[in-house]
Design a protein that fits this description.
- GO terms for molecular function: DNA binding.
- This is Helix-turn-helix transcriptional regulator.
- InterPro entries: Cro/C1-type_HTH (IPR001387), Lambda_DNA-bd_dom_sf (IPR010982).
- Keywords: DNA-binding.
- This protein starts with a helix and ends with a helix.
- The protein is elongated and about 90 Å long.
- The protein is built from 9 helices and no strands.
- The chain folds into 2 domains: about 5-75, lambda repressor-like DNA-binding domains (434 Repressor (Amino-terminal Domain), Orthogonal Bundle), CATH 1.10.260.40; about 95-175, no CATH class.
- With about 190 residues, it is mainly alpha-helical.
């Protein structure tokens, strides 16, 4: 089972799975699972069976899986892995920066609201609504740019749904008014 650790990592990345998720299913820590992917720990037959189930592949398919390095004919010195690590780290930094920007925007919009109130109470919902109303905020408020579990992502989805409902309501009101005007004109004729 030479280089199986590279194949497991390649399959995991291709299937967009996280090390933590696989480690939990294997009943081990993320650190130990990471050591398997690095080739520091041998993969037991029992763990291979579980991986087959996770990846929905046979052991033969796992062993015959062609990694990106193998497809490109690159030597197995980890250069490609290093590039992938750097890009993954950059993506995480960008997500963190997006989340920090959202927090800063909420604080920015919250200041005028607080200063305009006599009781100086926090009006976070209005500040959040102000952030949601910014043109182009859709580019930041999505699961690619902020963590899927970020509370603003769910709130933003609700906000967009309510805007859609409001727009549909306005359209229906206008349609009803136009229809009733047409009916009144026909009645007068």
């Amino acid at each position: 089972m030479q280089n199986i650790h590279n194949k497991i990592k390649s399959i995991r990345l291709a299937k967009n799975l996280k090390q933590e998720d696989i480690a939990i299913k294997l009943g081990m820590s993320k650190a130990n699972y990471s050591r398997i992917e690095k080739g520091d720990i041998a993969l037991s037959p029992e763990k291979l069976e579980i991986l087959q189930s996770i990846f929905n592949m046979t052991s033969g398919e796992i062993l015959n899986h062609e990694t990106a390095q193998e497809r490109l004919g690159l030597p197995n010195h980890g250069a490609l892995e290093e590039i992938v690590k750097q890009q993954a780290a950059q993506i995480e930094r960008m997500k963190s920066n997006s989340e920090n920007l959202l927090e800063a925007l909420i604080k920015h919009f919250q200041k005028p609201i607080i200063s305009s109130k006599l009781d100086s109470g926090n009006d976070i919902p209005n500040a959040i609504a102000s952030v949601f109303a910014i043109d182009g905020i859709d580019f930041i408020l999505n699961k690619d740019n902020i963590g899927e579990d970020h509370p603003l992502l769910a709130a933003y989805k609700q906000y967009k749904i309510s805007l859609l409902g409001y727009g549909i309501g306005l359209f229906l009101d206008a349609l009803i008014k136009e229809t009733s005007k047409g009916s009144q004109r026909k009645d007068k004729e």
